[in-house]
Design brief:
269 residues, globular, single chain, oxidoreductase, metal ion binding, 16 strands, 8-stranded mixed sheet, metal-binding, TauD-like_sf, alpha+beta, iron, 3-stranded antiparallel sheet
Length: 269
């Protein structure tokens, strides 16, 4: 996979690449943006080292790929589209500590997210990403047929209620198997962070199928594990990946900023 303005070094056979030759802290040209779009489609999640960003510049980077989506939890006062992610010795929970795709409780979940971390613990704090292309492809033909046409409810309170139990969080219904709008590939689109149940099944059957899918999607053969360094960036396609932030560094500090990019359409089967 070749690009005109950057290089992409694959990290695993199925997902993830390190991008070199791009300084996100400086204005991006059209050719660079086009190459980054292609790299994201090719690798599902792309990583950058040694980037100089602040919330304003992070917004500018994200806006190249679409309008920025506001998170269900509050953003920064001066930059409401930017969410601060910070964990320290006072934290009782951290964002993303179970497998999920971002904000699938929204009628149109974000197409992607960009996370910049400036402060890291001395050890730990990795993020693991799993390819939902690979997860779908590994299902048996009989299971693929069974899942086609099913829908699931995604409830924001499951993920965000522990941070603010009084919040009014969105609830949405999406296909269990969705088609990626750009690549045309099928993906599994349920996750333990947001999905409450499969609508067409009894609770007993729904729980059994979801538990199987969650275990299946967490298979290490579908994954890439990213070890952060200060001033690193991860940009993931939210439509075809899940991720898990590993909180193994308490009570040390892990801190940075994230933006989410709106999708043009709701998930379709």
């Amino acid at each position: 996979m070749e690009y005109d303005t950057l290089t992409a070094r694959k990290l695993t056979p199925r997902i993830g690449a390190i991008i070199e030759g791009v300084e996100l802290g400086k204005p991006l040209g059209e050719a660079q943006v086009a190459d980054l779009r292609k790299a994201l489609a090719d690798h599902q999640v792309i990583f950058f080292r040694n980037q100089d960003l602040d919330p304003a510049r992070l917004k500018e980077v994200g806006a190249h790929f679409g309008p920025l989506a506001r998170h269900a939890l509050k953003g920064l006062p001066d930059h409401p589209e930017v969410r601060k992610l910070h964990a320290d010795e006072t934290s009782k929970h951290v964002a993303g500590e179970e497998w999920h795709s971002d904000m699938t409780c929204a009628p149109k979940p974000p197409m992607g997210s960009i996370l910049y971390l400036h402060t890291l613990p001395s050890l730990g704090g990795d993020t693991v990403f799993s390819s939902m292309y690979a997860a779908y492809d590994a299902l048996s033909d009989r299971m693929k047929t069974y899942l086609e046409g099913l829908t699931a409810t995604h409830d924001g309170k499951l993920a965000f209620g522990r941070f603010d139990p009084t919040g009014n969080y969105p609830v949405a219904v999406h296909p269990v198997i969705r088609t990626h709008p750009e690549t045309g590939k099928k993906v599994i689109f349920v996750n333990p962070g947001f999905t409450s149940h499969i609508n067409e099944l009894s609770k007993l059957e729904s729980d059994a199928i979801l538990n199987f899918l969650y275990q299946h999607c967490a298979n290490e053969y579908f994954q890439v594990r990213f070890t952060w360094e200060p001033h690193s960036v991860a940009f993931w396609d939210n439509r075809c990946t899940q991720h898990l932030a590993i909180w193994d560094y308490f009570p040390e500090v892990r801190s940075g900023y994230r933006v989410q990019i709106e999708d043009e359409q709701a998930p379709v089967a």
